[in-house]
Every structure is written in C-alpha cells, then in structure tokens.
Amino acid sequence: MNLAIRGISANLGVKADNTFSKDQHPDLKADFIMANPPFNQKDWRAADELTDDPRWDGYEAPPTGNANYGWILHMVSKLSENGTACFILANGALSGEGQEKAIRKKMIENHLVEAILVLPMRMFYTTDISVTLWVLNKNKKARTVQRGDITRNYRDRENEVLFLDLRKWGETFEKKYIQFSDQHRADITNTFHTWQETRAAQEYQNIPEYCYSASIEEVREKDYSLVPSKYIEFINRDENIDFDEKMAALQQEFGELLKEEATSRAGLLNVFKELGYEIKL
Q: What structural domains and CATH numbers belong to the chain?
C-alpha cells in the first residue's frame, strides 16, 4: 500500500500473498534493508507451521506468541554478504527470554548486531512508547568502502556493539510529538560513523547517558541482554549534593514565596474592604 500511494513500482512476488508467512522472494539478497514491522504480533504462526523454514537456518524457530524475532530472522536471511538492516521494534525484544534469547544470543555470537539505539517516546502517530532502532551488519570486518564521494575506512567491530540512549533527545512538533532536528541527526550519525571507522581510536569516546561501545565479553556477562541502560553509564546527580546548602537555598526560596503571598493577600483584602465588602477572617 505504501508503495502504491507513492507511485513506486517493485517486485512484490509472483502472486498476491503474505510474503512473511509464504516467502515470495526466496533468492533475494539485499545490501540495505529498512523496515518498520508490526510490534509484538501475536499468533502469527501455528505451532506446526514454518518450523523448518529456510529463513531460520542456524537459529531456533521464532516463538509462536510473538513475531518480533520472526521479522528479524526474515530480514537477516535476505542480507547480502555485506548487507545492513535497520529496523524499529518494541523495546521488549531487547531482553526476551526463551527462544527469543536463544536467537539473540546466536545473532550476537555471529557478529550480526552492530548498534542498538533507544528512541524517545512520542515519535510516532500510532504509539507513544519508546522504541528501539536496531542496526544489523553482515560484515563488521575491517575494510574500505567507496560510495560516491564518501570513503569509509571501517575498523574491525566484530566483537563490539554500540549502544545509544536517545530518550532525552529531540524537539517538539505538532505540540505533542517528538522529532529529531537536522542537528540531532547529524550528531547521532557522526557518533555512529566515527565509532565504525578507524578514526574511532582518536575521535570516539563513551559518553555517560548517551553512548557506550560494549565488548562481546560485556554482553555475555549481561546474559545477552541488549538493553542500553545495562551498558551506558548514568550519573547520580544526588550523590554529591550538600544537604545543608540545598536546604538553605530552599529556605530562602520558600521564604520569598511566602512573603509574596502575604503581600498579595493583604492587597486583596484591602481591595474588598474599600469596595465595602470587607472579608472577615
């Protein structure tokens, strides 16, 4: 429907069908995949359906009660040897147990997970929850890639995952939604590309409450959870507060407020008295 609305032609398969449950592109290998699959799709297959689908080769079959990892493996199966996939999912996919954890563990050990970015709330019209942007990459080895006028000197990142927490980023639009400004996007992409490339040794650094480059050993220690808050450092702003200094400041602030209230109250009582409607307290 999105393609039709925008007048974009594409190969949608040999027949009108659900390509998720009946793969219409079994031989497709893509260099780039971008997707926004349904979140937490329930009962997407029966217990005896798609159990040995070739898209799950090397992994467990995704659980029947939630299609998140079905979508992930569907995309992984379509990646070329140098392919990259970017997609958004509900945050629960970062730490699911059972079959989801088994699949996630295998993906991490297969060096597929490149970056996890947790996004702000209220970025979408259809949901106000915070969601996650996943970046998967089939080739995280050191190499040089030329695309147009841009040369990327990638370093070996096979045993690393980049985490970014963007929940406090963004600006308001249409009064109740959040979007990234041009500068926000430039800063985020610069962090990502700097981390990917050989210049990372000089230019990239972990920043509290923003980004962290985790080793695969750290991910193993966290039991293969991909929740960014387990890795990114957060600052305890209450830790170094001087209690006496804080209370003295509050004492002065509330004292001024009470004085202003008393003055306002006296003025209001005087106005009613002059009008002949004195208020008796």
A: 2-230 (3.40.50.150), 241-281 (no CATH)
